[in-house]
Amino acid sequence: MRRFGLYIMVLLLIGQTSCSRYLDVKDKSEVVPKTAEEFSAILHTRLNNIEQASEYAFFGAYLNTLPFEFYTDNMDANLTISERDIPEYVGSDINSLSGKFGSLYEVIKDCNIVLHELKERDTEFGKKLLATAYTMRAVCYYNLMRNFCEPYDKTRAGEQLGVPLVEKFDMEGKPDRASLKATADFIIHDLKEALKLNQTDKQYLFYADVTNAYLARTYFWTQEWDLAASTAKEVLDAYPLIRGDAYREMLQSEVERKGNELIRSGTKQSEAYTRLYMQRSKQRPVSLDLVKLFTEKERDIRYTFFFDEQFLNTKMLKTSVRAAEMCLVMAESYAHAGDETNALRYLNHLRENRISDYVPYTAQNLPEVNTDALVKVDATGKALTPLMSAILNERRKELYLEFDRWYELKRNGSPVMWWGLSGVKYETAKFMYLFPIPKTDIALNSGLIQNPGYEGL
């Protein structure tokens, strides 16, 4: 990645921590860059943070995967081995999670400066900057949507609350919350604009294939099943599944991006630093409910290195986008669309690359739905079928410790969870799947309606 001596926007970041406050700049001429290289420096500052594993909001440092795993049923909170740096449950971190709101809008501000102030737009270099900024802005809004909005409901998305849409570098703007549908449409628009520019330079991290993967993710979150399946297929075709030693090496790589990972954090972090944080993942054992899903045991390669004999985690911490997720998106999307044949095809495609001597699932031999499982309904609110249950279980296994389970719980019913620790009952209520809008933002803009459950904050 290129380094530039002038990082003109660093001063802009100091003290600007919210959707409204980041616009409070008095003299636009003093802060807007002049050359394409200076605009590039804005983006490279953000991209470098991803590579250094110090970015926590729009892509997520791999260190963030652990708290989000502890918020879910993937780790056994009742058997916490050490309480150092371990949240009891999501409520313990609610203030810091609220802070993601301002952090995401800081990145959006930088993207807006590039998108609307860059003069060199028709050169290859300029197009590369625009495509990267479009994708980064879309990823920010994608994460705002998942963190601060209700799960998407196609039947009422026009009435559900989205987030403020800040499209331009406006020093006076204080937008209200848009609808959830408008928010999703804005994300999709940005991703499509980026794809038109066909940015393929991987030094900018958010190249066209990554953009396409986020488009598949967005269609999936918004229940556009046909579009999710077809877009995910484009990515999967370009990055086929791998198996055996190649798969193990990819997932256990401490800093290097390998295999069919499209993007990952921490590629410029030291291996010693990564190993230090790996120790924190052993402070709670893996949930037995998750362990029991590996019914093929040692024939499933994941069972052999995701955890040890004491069920303590041994899978490498990372934040990434990789091809297996696209395969799972296809399986579930086809199932929702009523295409059982293709749903089984892609479910089995993942399993054949993970399980030796595997037995393909058919409509006749799918496991029965576990009525004691935490997730009882799918993303549309319907009771789980054996096919949907098998797909969700496979996703839980495959993407364990990859920033996924919390959002899967939210997407599929937002079930109430509780556990006891040191004689105290901790409950994750349904409203906690939405993080609160910072009260400082609401004080500045009365149009920012607070999320349910946090009105008294």
From TrEMBL:
Residues 22-219 form the SusD-like N-terminal domain. The keyword DNA damage does not apply. It comes from the Bacteria. Signal peptide: none annotated. Transmembrane segments: none annotated. It is found in: Cell outer membrane. Keywords: Cell outer membrane, Membrane, Signal. Residues 321-454 form the RagB/SusD domain. Belongs to the SusD family. This is RagB/SusD family nutrient uptake outer membrane protein. It comes from Butyricimonas hominis.
